[in-house]
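Final paragraph of the annual report: two paired records, presented back to back.
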Amino acid sequence: MKQLKITNYELRIKQSKGQVAIIVLLVSAIMLSLGLSMSKKEVVDVKIATNDELLKKAFDAAESGINYYLGTGGTDYASPAGDSFAKITATNIGVGQTVDFGEYVPNGSSESYWLVDHIASGDLGTSYLPDASVDVCGVGFSGLVEVNYFYKIGASYYLRRNMYDLNSSCATVDTSLGLSVLLSVTPVINGGKFYISANNGGTFASQGVDVSSLGQAGGTQAGANAQADKKLNIRQRYKVPGFMTSGMVAEGSILSD
């Protein structure tokens, strides 16, 4: 009997040791999982921080690229540190027989359309629209519009102002008085969208440029495993000279530069 009791006691000890070993293994597995999870989280946090930094650099490069193009006309920009770059593209606006900016014009505000080209400096050129008339049209618009037609004879600029009732149609503006320079369209009561169309096959000059700048950071940097892109777009319309802007609100019809 005593030997049996000892044997049972030894058996219980062995069973207890086995349970302890299993518990130790479970605890070790849990600790290992937690350690791996924390390690993975730290790696993810570092990657997110790196990507945020690269995105910021890409955005700064895209913004600097636009300024670089507007200042120099260049289409390839590199940051002073050489760790970010930008590729710039510029597309002329409105070249063709129709000019449609697709923008809503509130009542009392004006949309301007150039009938002459511009040189590289932004000043007026010498290539004028040859058409004797231009249609001014509304897009789903019905109401009164004021149209200012600027033209040039010799060294002097002139202005003819007319009021048209579009009534969901187009109004034909006489552009045969001289060298055509500019049309401005102002809705009187209701705002709307407008476009102009040449009647005799002429081509409108560029109204400005759409500039797109793709900034890039990472990838080409030594040791960098991530690359970030950021694109910015701006529309650069040719400005209306001050003497023409004054003429739009003045009662007189003769302007001088």
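The closing record of the year follows.
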Amino acid sequence: MRPVARVAGRHRRGVTLAESLVGLVIAGVLSVSLTALAIRQGAAGTAVLIRTAARAQWAESRAVLEADFETLGQGASRLVTVEDTAVEMDAHVGVALACRAANAGAHAITVAAGASGSRIVADGWLRAVAAGDSVLAFDPVSGAWVGELLAAAPPASCPAGSLAGTARSLILVGALSVDIPAGAPVQVRRRIRWNAYRASDGRWYLGIKERTGGSWATVQPAAGPLDGSTGRPRPFSLLDPVGAILAPAAPLASAALLSAQLSMLGDVGADRTPIVAAIRRRP
């Protein structure tokens, strides 16, 4: 019988312990490097999102602040107190027309407006009406605004052929002292306060709080964080008719303009364009 030929295979050397350890070290270094790179990229992405959100938040808050300042210039809002760190005002909530006559002694005024929830949807309405708001109705006989506090604002209806088919009945806490004819303008105001405050994280923010139902609501952050490198931010200024800044203790009667300017913390950037409103004094 012919012997079976043996084919010698190539000798394979095993991996030594030292080589395994070196490979593990290299893999570990690569893993740490890749992890660190991923963390840095994630942190950079998070920072971009934070900056973008902060800029968007400030844009929205600036629009609200500008609207409140604009109503000051129109006489629809009234300044109460001004400090360099805070502004308190009876702010414009909205305006509508009475679609029913309300006699002296009445506790309600029906105003024409589309209704959606508690908000009166009509031109010039910035906020939803709430109990505790001030209702001002125009008396054409005296040329004065007659005020009462709002108790509620349930849905109502206007007479057929009048200003609108839908309406709100502004229920008043007290009785009207004069007759209010149909077609008379009615405005609603609310006490609000814009101020720079320090939050629980130790940073400064621009906040707003509203007085509803006879008490102040919790302050809500509107923009920030603000640059507090020199102490508490002081964003508000009263100006005289030529634009010069008045002293913080100056009486409101001597002011013609109100200015707001904020600097945001970090690379969100400083808003160098002040919001300026003329102050018109009406009831």
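The chain has a mean pLDDT of 75. This concludes the annual technical report; the extension proposal builds directly on these records.
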